[in-house]
Amino acid sequence: MNTMHFRPDAEYARSLDAQDPLARFRDEFVIDDPHLIYLDGNSLGRLPKRSVTRLREVIEQEWGQRLIRAWNEGWFGAPQRVGAKIARLIGAAPNEVLVSDSTSVNLFKLVMAALQAQPGRDTVVTDALNFPSDLYILQGALKLAGPQYRLVIVPSTDGITVSHDSLAEAIDERTALVTLSHTAFKSGYVYDMAAVTAMAHRVGALMLWDLSHSVGAMPITLNACEVDLAVGCTYKYINGGPGAPAFLYVRSDLQERLLNPIWGWFGQRDQFDFALEYQPGPGIQRFLTGTPTILSLSAIEPGVDLLLEAGLEQVRAKSIRQTDYLIRLWETVLQPLGFRLNSPRDASRRGSHVSLGHPEGFRIDRALIEEMHVLPDFRSPDNIRFGLAPLYTSYTDIYEAVMRLCTVVVERRYEKY
Amino acid sequence: MNTMHFRPDAEYARSLDAQDPLARFRDEFVIDDPHLIYLDGNSLGRLPKRSVTRLREVIEQEWGQRLIRAWNEGWFGAPQRVGAKIARLIGAAPNEVLVSDSTSVNLFKLVMAALQAQPGRDTVVTDALNFPSDLYILQGALKLAGPQYRLVIVPSTDGITVSHDSLAEAIDERTALVTLSHTAFKSGYVYDMAAVTAMAHRVGALMLWDLSHSVGAMPITLNACEVDLAVGCTYKYINGGPGAPAFLYVRSDLQERLLNPIWGWFGQRDQFDFALEYQPGPGIQRFLTGTPTILSLSAIEPGVDLLLEAGLEQVRAKSIRQTDYLIRLWETVLQPLGFRLNSPRDASRRGSHVSLGHPEGFRIDRALIEEMHVLPDFRSPDNIRFGLAPLYTSYTDIYEAVMRLCTVVVERRYEKY
After folding, report:
1. CATH of domain A10-49+311-416
2. Residue A60 and which of A282, B30, B56, B404 are 20 to 30 A apart at CA?
3. pLDDT per position as a tens digit, A39-79
4. Are B401 and B326 in contact (CB under 8 A)?
5. Which residues of A are catalytic?
6. Separation of alpha carbons A110 and A60, rounded Å
7. Domain A74-308 class?
8. Is the ipTM of this complex over 0.95?
9. In A211-352, where do the E strands start and end?
10. Closest B-chain CA to A65
């Protein structure tokens, strides 16, 4: 723990870095431009050095030299092998997780499967903080499932959180499925996974969590929370690379009861028998469809390894310290400049990103990127979103970003955008 | 043209190589082991040297250095940009083709879209030569679409071809969609695209071709044949790498009439407005779903460029010469050893692979791989499949492979497997 008291200066930031038990992990990443402050690791994580090596091996040796033989030398098992590693990040058994397709396609597969497994129930409950692509998938899936189905979108009164009470009101005996983002993409609000899952189960609904903004930033305990289904992204805190394939989780006792709606050869029992009739494979395999994108998939594993080495308890502890630190800086120097905190104050209900709203948010964000060498993200209408990735974000990064943000506002540099 | 007459010897093979106008393209590929004869380019194409360079750039510069900015510097447009290049391989307009997902997922999207656009029609016609994953996708899609739907699988009497007469009998006013593999994965039989498409259109059915075993091996003229829909694979003759994302084609006048059933944010109009209601984007964009797998996608473009440089007329001419040559060798030296030709004799109805059946096919294939440094493919029950990729397969490869095959049989080397 830091022995100094909070001060909004560079020395204090350096003292926090000096005491950071995860500091050494920064060197595991390619950081070629020391002046760039990258606070968008929750959109696209940085490139691990090990992934450069691993990808060369996959491209030049496996594809280039082993050719088709590489399928039997590791590629066929890759969706399950990498899935089993991700299982350790999310509190699942190794045979409950697969890497495949995109988060959206995986969500589609699991939602359709859940609806078919819940005959007589005709609503799906989600919330207005969910990632829009998830809402689109739900709208499309329900349209396909039939006119009797209805999507209930629980609103957020403050744009930051959703109360358990309003969720509880929406969930009833007609609910087939409750599906939410565990950490909200805009505000960073984190649901109580155990409590909400229990709420769904009390009325016999299935629970599906989108873990995209949580996985790799905090421990997740799917099995302990008795979660039924989950999906998630690998290119944020897992650092799996642009558009890396996503993962899906199906609790083991549900696997044989659920049917993937997209029947492809990788989900087929005894795939190379080439039978003309589809027969779903055993266990989690049935949730695969087509040929896995091996290059993109291969980049995921080194990122997972780094998180397992760091330990998710450590990662979460640093994430909380860093978001707390950013919020202290906001209070001290940004609030007076007109910034609002659009993320929860309570660290236990907050993920690893912090959103700051400002009436000039869009133009300030442009100025940060174009002139100040800071890369945050912008989310409409006025949120500048700062993603803190504990494996490589330093306290000095955070301090320096806040100082540059001050400069943009004080010198009114945003006005030209 | 070769001035020598066919002779089953190495000198004749060398003379064919010496006169091959595409010979220089072999040097565009990574070929590290000169003794390995690779005849499985129709399962996984070889690694183009340019792809090694391109992938390094994408990984180390774009992901490593440009980070999130790379999305606006080329990644967002990649599915359309690479799609527009593939359009030139298949006789389509640039705005009619996208790279996305796997062939199976793309097929699912287009089949569901086609069924919804054809109310009142309740059958889908395909054939028993189609790739099994396509049949599985159809079975799953029809199950989802409702109990009124029926899949008609037209049989093949010889396992090599399907007659137009038996297709014509199966297609009628109830047919919503006809969907076939243009080149059959096992026998290499190639349908007459114009004739079959016209047959479907005469009764008001839509026509969807799976081009996986055709694209990059022959010119395809989707627009000239008035084809409605198509999908295809990029990791065979396009040499896009293991599990590279697939492509889909929707004829431009159909795009606004059809709806992708999997509604994701990359298909959404004004994606970054993050509206809560799905609104399909204009034109071909609506057939995207989730985030594209950028690393795997990036490896496709150099492969397409090589084919465009070689010219598909030249590629097809060499492919025919090479499959003809292999069949002459079969007649001369393999038929007497008990091999049957399980591909069409007529070059105009044959793709770029040749299947040879043998009662000991499975064990012979094992011996070729384990002892003889030849990599063909095996397709049950007894087919050894030789894929000839005109950009890098030499006549000497073919001759040498046949000689090694003779050795395996004459010396009964397969008996130990």
Report:
1. 3.90.1150.10
2. B404
3. 999 999 999 999 999 999 999 999 999 999 999 999 999 99
4. no
5. 131, 210, 235-236, 385
6. 35
7. alpha beta
8. yes
9. 229-232, 247-250, 340-341
10. B32
